[in-house]
Amino acid sequence: MTGQRQGRWLALYYALYFSALGAFMPYWGPYLQQQGLTALEIGILTATIQATKVLAPNIWGLMALRWGLGRIVPGAALATALGFLALLWAHDFFSIFLITIAFSFFWAATLPLVDITTMEWAERSGAAYGRIRLWGSIGFILLALGMGWLIASGGMAVFLPVIVVFLLAAWWSSRYLPFAAGGTATAVPQAALRNELRRGDLLFFFAACILEQASHGPYYAFYSIYVGDHGQGSMAVGFLWGFAVLCEVLFFAVGEGVIRRLGLKTVLYASFLLTALRWGVIGLWPDLPWIVAVQSLHAASYGAFHLAAVHWVYQRFPTSLRARGLALYASAAYGLGGAMGALAGGWAWQKLGGPETFYAAAALSLLGTVLLLVALRPGYANWERVRVSLEKARR
């Protein structure tokens, strides 16, 4: 298979995977609300999806070393589609909870493993990861908009079947991805990974990423409900999500050039600060035109953050540990951070209300900026130095 053809299969997989995600994310909260679930239960279910990303990518990464990506990714993709299909027969919190654990465990397997495949392919081919990844964002936009129209026409009955169709298509395309023979990389001693994880810059960086993604919890779980409460219908909800991801697409198209020009540090700092601004504006001014304008900041809160973070982690780990490093990043940021944000967001939404919950999200991102400053400070490149400096400070 030629390099150009391999790139097309990767782009197609991202487009189909994120099409399913674009149909899912804007309407998961409203779908659960229609099932009669409370805000706290919606927060728990959203947190469950994120929580599986803490362990699942690492478990699947280890399995891929043994059986190869060519088996793991298609198998997990098919199991995800079947899990969503099972939701058609689940209507109470407990049954939805159990099925959500199952499908999200398999869903969490695929993206980090495809990401490392794409990064390795891009390095071999002299291509840009962002130019492939942007096709996922295009798919997300089309389905976020399309699902809004379908729901407006046919109601929530179309929600699950559409997602299943795209997940099955993603499974089909995953069989043709340019996986490395035998897995992502050869097994490496655990001591090598432990040595990397003792370094302070890495720990503070992961902690900052956790907070940045935790700040997204109220957005992913309740944004569609929030704007609906302020007079917007399903078509408007789809437009708002689609517009946000369009801005993300534009950043992915030029992101590598922006990083080269401004540097990873500047892009990371800007993404954290603009994320805080985004949540603050949503909390203060939830009506048009502010709520449209602020969606453009998704280019920073997700696009710039993810692209810069993936490059930082990829460069930070030695070659033999890059797959594990990206899996750990996904587990920490999107798993632990996402779960914390969704769970805390569900509690805050029920106890405090929508605007106050978004103010708290803005504060989380600002706190993450402080940790990022520590992580990227040259003097804090080793955890042992941090420990010694803290001991001296106590004296």
TrEMBL record:
Record's keyword terms, sorted: Cell inner membrane, Cell membrane, Membrane, Transmembrane, Transmembrane helix, Transport
PANTHER family listed in its UniProt record: 3-PHENYLPROPIONIC ACID TRANSPORTER-RELATED, BLL5896 PROTEIN
Pfam families: MFS_1_like
Coiled-coil portions: none
Highest taxon of the lineage: Bacteria
Location in or out of the cell: Cell inner membrane
Domain Major facilitator superfamily (MFS) profile: start-end pairs: 141-395
GO cellular component, one term: plasma membrane
Nuclease is among the record's keywords: no
MF (Gene Ontology): lactose binding; lactose:proton symporter activity
Mode of membrane association: Multi-pass membrane protein
PROSITE patterns for the chain: MFS (PS50850)
Keyword Transmembrane helix: yes
Residues that span the membrane, as ranges: 12-29, 35-56, 68-90, 96-114, 134-152, 158-181, 202-222, 234-254, 266-285, 291-314, 326-346, 358-376
UniProt protein name: MFS transporter
